[in-house]
Amino acid sequence: MEARATWKQDMAFEGWAGGSGYKLPLDTTPDVGGHDEGFRPIELLLIGLAGCTGMDVISILKKKRQDVTGFEVRAHAERTSEHPRVFTHILLEFIVSGHGVERAAVERAVELSATRYCPAQAMLGKVVPIETKITILEE
Questions:
Q1: What domains lie within the chain, and their CATH numbers?
Q2: DSSP label of 102
Q3: DSSP-assigned letters across all residues of 1-42
Q4: Which of 33, 43, 49, 65 is the most exposed place for a label (fewest CB within 10 A)?
Q5: Which segments of 8-135 does DSSP mark as H helices, in order?
């Protein structure tokens, strides 16, 4: 896999990944020289983690024939006071809506993602503790 960040101006970059042809703006806030017109790189780490685990979990739940009608993964990160860009803790919150969704099935899917499938969680989990929370909403 290959990724690139090409400088555009000031603190603005354009990100490109893996030959997919997809590009996304990278920037930061005006107080540090940016224009606030793109993703902050640290945000992309959390989005990648949420997306990676989310894709795993929903795929497993669908294979297990769970009647999921809504699904969201929220990644909450706490930062150190010494360096505001360094995470000390990450909480992944899985919010599942559906009809008769089994908690055990969701727990197993989350566990499989963490231990076997999601490379983002495997890498980040080596440097910061990652906890999970599961909420199931019956429709």
A1: 3-32 (no CATH), 41-138 (3.30.300.20)
A2: -
A3: --EEEEEEETTEEEEEETTS--EEEE---GGGT--S-SB-HH
A4: 65
A5: 41-63, 103-112, 119-124
Q: Can you tell me the distance from the alpha carbon of 94 to that of 85, in angstroms, rounded to the nearest whole number?
A: 24
Bridge-partner residues for 39, per DSSP? 26
pTM of the model: 0.86
Q: Nearest to residue 76, comparing CAs of 46, 56, 96?
A: 46
Taking alpha carbons only, the member of 89, 31, 96, 33 closest to residue 62 is 96
Measured in degrees and rounded to the nearest 5, phi and psi for residue 21 equal 90, -5
